[in-house]
């Protein structure tokens, strides 16, 4: 089962723990399926998802928005990003040269093309943010990608 992720980057520390637990529970519900996660490895939900996939014995692929994407990750979290990137079974480039909305849109389109199911760590608020969570949710709906929204009690954004 190939499962993609979209979700918020600006999660509180308390929310991260609650969301991680919800992700692990959700992935365990695919009992017996070989889980392959597909993530852009953004700070927040994407990185929690990659860890949760590993926790349940799966593997993950990374769609890297652009070669400079690492510098978009907060400096204090780059070590985690590097470790997760090194653990990916495949790293797919988008062809974009610089990070920004066009690269994020391209990465999310590639991610959606590679999955059977999408997990959205989303507070449900629609925003006009190309490449953002609500944009990916809308595109998944248009494409008919089955989706689960995860926003458990205690989840908050900064």
Explain the overall architecture.
The protein has 158 residues and is α/β, with parallel strands linked by helices. It has a single domain, classed as 3-Layer(aba) Sandwich (Rossmann fold), CATH 3.40.50. It has helices spanning 13-28, 45-55, 78-86, 101-113, 133-143; strands at 2-7, 36-39, 59-64, 90-93, 117-121, 147-150. It has a six-stranded parallel β-sheet, sandwiched between helices. β3, α3 and β4 form a beta-alpha-beta unit. α1 packs across α2. The longest helix has 16 residues, at 13-28. It is globular. The N and C termini lie far apart (32 Å). The model has no long low-confidence stretch (mean pLDDT 95).
The CATH topology label is: Rossmann fold
Overall shape:
globular
Q: Which range best describes the helical content: under 10%, 10-25%, 25-40%, 40-55%, 55-70% or over 70%?
A: 25-40%
Task: State the low-pLDDT regions, or none.
Answer: none
CATH class: Alpha Beta
CATH architecture: 3-Layer(aba) Sandwich
The largest pleated sheet is described as:
6 strands, parallel
Proportion of residues in β-strands: 15-25%
DSSP summary, beta strand count: 6
| Strand numbers in spatial order across the main sheet | 4-3-2-1-5-6
Number of helices: 5
């Amino acid at each position: 089962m190939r499962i993609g992720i979209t979700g918020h980057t600006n999660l509180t520390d308390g929310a991260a723990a609650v969301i991680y637990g919800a992700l692990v529970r959700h992935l365990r519900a695919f009992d017996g399926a070989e889980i392959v996660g597909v993530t852009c490895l953004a700070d927040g939900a994407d990185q929690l998802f990659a860890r949760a996939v590993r926790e349940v014995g799966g593997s993950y692929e990374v769609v890297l928005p652009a070669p400079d994407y690492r510098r978009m990750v907060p400096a204090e979290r780059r070590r985690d990003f590097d470790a997760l990137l090194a653990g990916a079974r495949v790293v797919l480039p988008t062809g974009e040269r610089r990070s920004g909305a066009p690269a994020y849109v391209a990465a999310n389109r590639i991610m959606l093309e590679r999955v059977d199911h999408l997990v959205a760590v989303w507070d449900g608020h629609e925003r006009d943010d190309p490449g953002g969570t609500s944009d990916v949710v809308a595109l998944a709906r248009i494409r008919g990608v089955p989706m689960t929204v995860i926003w458990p009690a205690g989840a908050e954004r900064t």
